[in-house]
Amino acid sequence: MQLFPWFEAIANRFLKNKAQLAHAWLLTGAQGIGKFQLGQFLAASLLCEQPSALGHACGVCQACHWVDSGTHPDLKYVYPAALHTQLFPEQEPADKEQKSQEIRIEQLRALDDWFYASTQRAGFRVVIFYPAHQINGVTANALLKILEEPMPRTVFFLISSQAPLMLPTIRSRCQIMRLNSPTKEQALSWLAAQEVSHAEQWLAAYDGAPLTAWHAAQIDERPIPEWLERLVMALQERQRAGVYALLPIIEPLAFEHLLTALQRLLMDIQYCQFTIEARHYVQLQGQLQQLAQRSSPQAVAFLLNQLTQSQSTAHHPFNQKLRVHRLLDQLYGAFA
Ligand SMILES: [Zn+2]
Prior knowledge:
Elements: H1 8-16, E1 24-28, H2 35-47, H3 62-69, E2 75-78, H4 84-87, H5 105-109, H6 111-116, E3 125-129, H7 137-148, E4 154-160, H8 168-171, E5 175-178, H9 184-193, H10 199-205, H11 210-219, H12 226-236, H13 240-244, H14 247-250, H15 255-273, H16 285-294, H17 297-311, H18 320-335
Parallel strand pairs: 1-4, 1-5, 2-3, 3-4
Helix pairs in contact: 2-3, 10-11, 12-16, 15-16, 15-17
This protein binds zinc ion.
């Protein structure tokens, strides 16, 4: 379990008061800064048999080994099945049938027996609930019921980058732990320690979120996807055919990732319209500048707003071909 340097102060404050902890915590903050890992670290520290003077998990005792291998009997994870590989890459992949994007009510019901059994070591029992906003109405009500009847020495970590989407009644049951994003220096020095080259470009492209940047750097070759560079070039040269030639590359991408990349692109164009430098795709500054002059701030803001709205339905099984096609139409139209 690692504790990211940017969370050290808040983790220490939390563990200092572990004798009188609130039973439910809402960890909120930007995406990709390590909130889930902080939840794991705090859980490990509560369960550790020989924590350090600061209360940190020792990493070597039986409990710490169990937490590391995901088998601690007093630690439960509740998350959408579709996130299994992302959260636990070293474990067996989840059942192919179980690709749910939401936390299901059965997962909460399964906690019931566990609550009433005694803890393994007469210590804490911890539930990590992630992401806490990805939950339907029925499941949210079941969660609310559980939170309304706190159980002794049981701690819930609800983790979300979209806390405003959660039921206010659930939020109000939780102690809020607001997590600040790392400074650029902290993020860059962490990425350097992970041996990510061109860390600054990766970090910029992923909006200052070190974990997302690191993850992307493992999979992709370049901080700016090739399709995005080609798209910008085709838009700049007003080549309609060049824009639509990207369809076969763009279509298979996860729609939310596609939207996120385009949102960042449009934000950069917006920055250029207000004579500020691009923030995400700095290397494309020259081309973005030209696109910025070719459209009005209103048109770009309108498009950006549409993309933001599409994010909320990104997981819906709409016709992918159709919606990607429409996106390209809109983009081309805005800069033609
Ligand atoms: Zn330990």
